[in-house]
């Protein structure tokens, strides 16, 4: 099945409109995935990965339309436009946490293992500053 098929299915069923909800079981059925009643962790993981891969494709397509497809207790829901700001804040908070971890790792890596043109620490510091300013001022200030 092509990736575009899942997006077309979402659109044809009306699951791409703001507030639209689709049950995860219905998505898995369309994809031909069956969650085993009893199985190994790797079997469950394989089904979950296939589902998340398909959902990721739909999610990326909807982002271009100003929509976000959020997992919600076994189903998926397209956020309302009024909910987008909270999702953006969540993305930024998660980015800030990952940047802090990346910066700690970069700073703790012994110098002899860093390439000659290693500038990750400076780039990470600039990214953190940008996120901090966004949180303080409410938006990213662009240079004229």
Keywords, please?
single chain; 144 residues; mainly alpha; three-stranded antiparallel β-sheet; 5 helices; 59% helix; extended
Explain how this protein is built.
With 144 residues, this protein is mostly helical. It folds into 2 domains: 77 residues, no CATH class; 54 residues. The protein contains 5 helices and 3 strands; from the N terminus they run H-E-H-H-E-E-H-H. A 3-stranded antiparallel beta sheet has the order 1-3-2. Helix 1 packs across helix 3.
Topology:
Blueprint: H1 3-13, E1 21-23, H2 24-31, H3 41-63, E2 69-72, E3 75-78, H4 84-108, H5 120-137
Antiparallel strand pairs: 1-3, 2-3
Oligomeric state, counting identical vs distinct chains: single chain
- Identify the overall geometry: extended
Counting DSSP E segments of at least 2 residues, the number of strands comes to: 3
Mean pLDDT: 85
* Rg: 20 Å
Q: What class would the helix/strand composition place it in?
A: mainly alpha
Order of helices and strands: HEHHEEHH
Low-confidence stretches: 140-144
Tell me the strand order in the biggest sheet: 1-3-2
Question: What's the main sheet like?
Answer: 3 strands, antiparallel
Q: How many domains make up the 3D coordinates?
A: 2
- How much strand content do the residues show? 5-15%
Cα distance spanning the termini: 46 Å
Give the helix proportion (percent range): 55-70%
Q: Please, how many helices?
A: 5
């Amino acid at each position: 099945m092509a990736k575009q098929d899942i997006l077309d299915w979402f659109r044809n069923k009306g699951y791409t409109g703001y507030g639209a909800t689709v049950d995860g079981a219905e998505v898995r059925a369309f994809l031909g995935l069956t969650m085993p009643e009893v199985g190994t962790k790797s079997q469950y993981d394989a089904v979950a990965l296939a589902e998340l891969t398909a959902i990721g494709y739909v999610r990326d397509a909807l982002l271009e339309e100003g929509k976000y497809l959020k997992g919600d207790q076994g189903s998926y829901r397209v956020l309302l436009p009024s909910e987008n700001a909270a999702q953006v804040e969540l993305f930024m908070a998660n980015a800030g946490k990952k940047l802090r971890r990346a910066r700690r790792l970069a700073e703790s890596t012994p110098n002899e293992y860093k390439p000659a043109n290693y500038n990750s620490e400076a780039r990470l510091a600039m990214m953190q500053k940008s996120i901090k300013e966004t949180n303080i001022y409410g938006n990213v200030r662009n240079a004229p």
